[in-house]
Please model this.
Amino acid sequence: MIARTLLPQLSARLRAMPAVVLLGPRQVGKTTLAREIARARGARAIYLDLEREADRRRLDDADSYLRAQSGKLVILDEIHRFPGLFDLLRGIIDERRASGEKAGHFLLLGSASVELARQAGESLAGRAAYMELSPILANELSAKGPRLEQLWVRGGFPESLLARTHAESLEWRLDFVRSYLERDVPMFAPRLPSAMVGRLWGMLAHAHGTALNKARLAASLEISSPAVSRYLDLLADLLLVRRLPPWSGNLGKRLVRAPKVYLRDSGILHALLGLGSVDDVLGHPIVGASWEGFVLEQLIAAAGPTRTALFFRTEKGAEADLVLERGGEVEIVVEIKRSSAPTISRGFHVACEDLKPNEAFVVHGGDASWPMKGGVTAISLSELVRRLEQR
Model:
């Protein structure tokens, strides 16, 4: 089993807050993480899977049952199935706070970020912390486990990454896509046709790493632009698609305003394109954009919630793949290259001149770091992740 770096952070939040909402796509490892916390607490923790009939029956009288668990951490998996619980949880938390029990009452697991945050936010404002569990990250790989290239090709869902063969991994990912379309889309968006969501998902794979063009997608799907927005909102809510917003400061230059769209897991991207092996990926035109999206996800995860992730592009071609801001200040700009001997594009130099970041990096496919022209540093992915996590 791969140790998740979020575990100590999650444990710390549970010691500080009455409730923690852990978000992440289905099959990403939320349940495994929650069970680790439950095992560490022994009899002081209860785990309920709200997809199981037996566990749902325990909540027939939810008020009495949950109030009887004072002093224990109650883990509620698939909490979106019981949206009516949030008001009840608020009352229990407030009563326990009044009696001196300040933290560690509930751990809530869910797969739809916006919807769950809305439900919880209305009732648990000031009472709950929100954390996101991403697919397995590069800094979570061990010396004896999968290598970085395998993580990139297969993606970070544990069952896919740790499959015995590329073929088994690809089959798992295709099943994952089917299950989302057959089960999760009808659950979270019953009015949206699953087949249309699936077609859009596939089209976004081909457009991975490009500026969002809703008019073109709408024309291809023969639907309206507002309908494209609804389908895209759903995929983003399910934490399957990232819309990276553009930097929008005032430079006196014409900036690209449309967000860039990425599939958040490179393995799902490759599955939707029918790419099962390293050679398949390397021989496909998507290879550069795929590597870019993979690196972006690693860096955004390492940057944490205190930094804002953006991209920068002007209509004249100045461009940075990733801009990290904190407190309104441009802290870091990044260009991403798959080559281990990268060169800096003219557009990136101009972006650095425009944005005046504290630091500028070219992330490459090798292991070394060295200074380049214009105050830019060539750096490996693992080294930049380490630096971001330490700040």
In short: The chain has a mean pLDDT of 92. The chain has two domains: 6-132, 138-390.
